[in-house]
Amino acid sequence: MKPLPKEFDILAVERKWQKLWEDWGIYRFDWNDHARPTFSIDTPPPYPSGEFHMGNVLNWTYFDIVARYKRMRGYNVFFPQGWDCHGLGIEVQVEKEYNIRKRDLPPDRFRSLCMKLVEKYIAMMKEGIIRLGCSVDWTTEYRTMDPDYWRRTQLSFLILYHKGFMYRGTHPVNWCPRCETAIADAEVDYEERLGKLHYIRFPLEEGEYLPIATTRPEFIPACVAVAINPTDERYNRYIGKRIIVPVVNRVVPIIPDENVDPSFGTGVVMICTYGDKEDVRIVKRHNLPVITILTDNGRINENGGKYQGLTVEEAKKAIVQDLKAAGMLEKVEEITQEVGLCERCKTPIEILERKQWFMKTRI
Q1: Domain 10-163: which topology?
Q2: How does pLDDT run across 140-173, given as a tens digit for each residue?
Q3: CA 130, CA 138: separation in Å to the nearest integer?
């Protein structure tokens, strides 16, 4: 009998048994077993953009409990480990580590830096999963940046498309002008900031004017309508008339909308494409035209006329100056407002229309 060591090296013991379990293949899915029922654990692959943290530990513990239970119940368990390598978080982290912007480098060079960082973080997180003792089948490990993974996702898309489940349409999306990409609602943080409410005169065709309050005068070139709550006795007589958008001199309709808050600002609002989420809802509800004035990097495009090429903030200052010069700006008040920010770079998001693919979930 071997004498017991004076010191117990728990890490060495863990590594020994983890290696043996992997060599023996005790957690491997048997592709040739058609007798036992198959149980597949299809969990969203994590972004390999940091160390394996406590939230990961909790989730993988849940997964592992199910995997082990199903094996004991006689199932042939398919428990792969994937890595989502196409996350925006990877790009932002590379930009921070190398103090660059992705547009500073050729796409292939920037992509190689992303892949290098991905592999570094995968190694860190994989070690955490192994040391946690999860019964993952590492022979089924995959990366979303692997060509074989692309092949499988493309095949899945084509199958769905030919079955009539996929269709293409234009839809407003959250857009980060710094990262130059669409982001999900879950990737938007909200923060209260001090802004300015501008009171602007919009001339009516018949000679009067209506006062409109907005925090985003830079979107005046994208104004497609003016809305009034039909219960607002101050202004509801103007519904159905036409009004002139200052600076751009575009004539737009005055429409009724019950979601307009009569107590905010003047109670008359301009509808732009798109200043905020409420604009999106009103444009869709009234089937209004869309005028896109922002480029992917957050500058004014050709639809902004003489303001083309300016950033959003530059355009705001220029338009406010022009309104003052024309006698259209009544006053400016400070206001606390909730601003949507990109979760990763904290840049204020915009709303842009983009062509996207959609999948039908109901027939």
Answers
A1: Rossmann fold (3.40.50)
A2: 999 999 999 999 999 999 999 999 999 998 889 9
A3: 10
